[in-house]
């Protein structure tokens, strides 16, 4: 029997208030984490997500501390404040899920440079900054047998060059974070921190729903598995990558997309 779990771990999930970040936070709560820290910009969303995760833990008969701290990670000072607030509550971190992200899509002629900067700033620069801040804490929790884990939420958009809706900054930012993950995987391995990137295909969420309304049917019909991603698809991979058993898995970029990146539909322009 193989029992994948994150028993006793302290985890931080950025953008953990909804969507894929919430799926990750729920999985960590349900699979043994001792403490789960979540963050996003909106205080109300943070509070509601904290209550939801506490109720989930209670329902499962688990004792999990949920900490929620509002912060805009794309603003350097707020990212530092977030780290400082976490450091007041825990003294190490076993798992960092760098998930917070945003997108913008428009044809090149209408795609202002400011949107590219905004997306790259959150999806790449803020991920770099968050990892930089938390590295000493991850190192404190790390061991040869069970390294600490950084999970970067990249995207299959990092692999494909078939940009159907003009997400120029998004696709490049995801290729950049995947590269950062590989770069750090090599540098951090001697410090016993594993770095892996997850590359989701299309999962319903606030970020993806606009696009799914327009091209959702095509996404399903061209997907080799014939469907969109579901919460459990992501949760299983996250818990595996964070488990003791995956301690030799380092530096990967793992698509969770039913094979969609091998069969992308033709661009519309
Ligand atoms: N859904 C998909 O199909 C898909 C596919 C591939 C990759 N991804 C990646 O998965 C990650 C999560 O996406 P999602 O689909 O779950 O999107 P989502 O539903 O829009 O969730 C994004 C999360 O990030 C937070 N956030 C946004 N801007 C932030 C900022 N400046 N500082 C801190 N937190 C911020 C949001 O909360 P606030 O608004 O309160 O800040 C929210 O909690 C992203 O990196 C995305 O690129 C998603």
TrEMBL record:
| UniProtKB keywords | NADP, Oxidoreductase
Residues in coiled coil: none
One molecular function GO term is: oxidoreductase activity
A Pfam family in this protein? adh_short_C2
Q: Which domain of life is it from?
A: Eukaryota
**Which InterPro entries does the annotation name?**
NAD(P)-bd_dom_sf, Sc_DH/Rdtase_CS, SDR_fam, Sec_Metab_Biosynth_SDR
Q: What family is it from? A: Belongs to the short-chain dehydrogenases/reductases (SDR) family.
The name under which this protein is listed is Uncharacterized protein
* Species name: Candida oxycetoniae
């Amino acid at each position: 029997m193989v029992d994948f779990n994150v028993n006793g771990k302290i985890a931080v999930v950025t953008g953990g208030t909804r969507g894929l970040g919430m799926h990750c936070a729920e999985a960590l709560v349900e699979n043994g984490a001792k403490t789960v820290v979540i963050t996003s910009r909106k205080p109300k969303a943070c509070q509601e997500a904290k209550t939801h995760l506490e109720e989930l833990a209670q329902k499962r008969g688990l004792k999990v501390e949920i900490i929620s701290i509002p912060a805009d990670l794309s603003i350097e000072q707020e990212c530092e404040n977030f780290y400082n607030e976490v450091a007041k509550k825990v003294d190490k971190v076993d798992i960092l899920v760098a998930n917070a992200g945003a997108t913008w899509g428009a044809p090149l002629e209408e795609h202002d440079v400011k949107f590219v900067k905004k997306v790259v700033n959150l999806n790449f620069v803020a991920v770099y900054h968050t990892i930089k801040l938390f590295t000493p804490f991850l190192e404190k929790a790390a061991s040869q047998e069970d390294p600490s884990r950084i999970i970067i939420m990249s995207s299959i958009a990092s692999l494909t060059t078939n940009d159907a809706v003009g997400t120029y900054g998004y696709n490049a930012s995801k290729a950049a974070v995947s590269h950062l993950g590989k770069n750090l995987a090599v540098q951090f391995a001697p410090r016993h921190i594993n770095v892996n990137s997850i590359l989701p295909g299309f999962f319903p969420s606030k970020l993806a729903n606009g696009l799914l309304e327009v091209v959702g049917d095509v996404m399903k019909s061209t997907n080799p598995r014939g469907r969109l991603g579901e919460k459990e698809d992501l949760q299983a991979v996250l818990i595996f990558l964070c488990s003791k058993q995956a301690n030799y898995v380092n530096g990967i970029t793992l698509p969770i997309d039913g094979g969609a990146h091998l069969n992308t539909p033709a661009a519309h322009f």
